[in-house]
Amino acid sequence: MTREERFAQLFTRLGNSKFRTSFHLKQKDLDYIEEKGLETIREHAADFIAKREALAIIPNDGKQTPTKEESRSSH
Question: Which terminal CB of the chain, N or C, has fewer other CB atoms within 10 Å?
Answer without folding.
Answer: C
